[in-house]
Amino acid sequence: MSTKSLTKLLEKDVGPLSFGGFLRSARTSKDLTQTEMAKLLAISKSTLCDIEKGRQNVSIELAAKIAKRCGLSEILAVECVIQDALKRAGLKMAITVRKSS
User: Fold this and answer.
1) pLDDT given for residue 45 in this prediction
2) What pLDDT is recorded for position 16?
3) H/E element holding 61?
4) Rounded to 5, what percent of the chain is helix, strand, coil?
């Protein structure tokens, strides 16, 4: 499935995609509790909750690391984090991330 198709599918389920929504959707699709996912990511449950609810921002590097550790799309994770930053800055822009060759 392409990143674009995955984004549209996730947005249908959770609304406009954010990194927190992406992570929550991934966690629930794997039938993991916040406690289980937090252990997998080696972070606290409260930190995971804050990320999922958009109260804590993550760096591009951390987003890629989280995605890789969970077997998720690194491209989509990084795209979500950058899009979150644009939204926080009040910029009505969209980006697309792709692997370089």
Assistant:
1) 97
2) 72
3) helix 60-70
4) 65, 0, 35
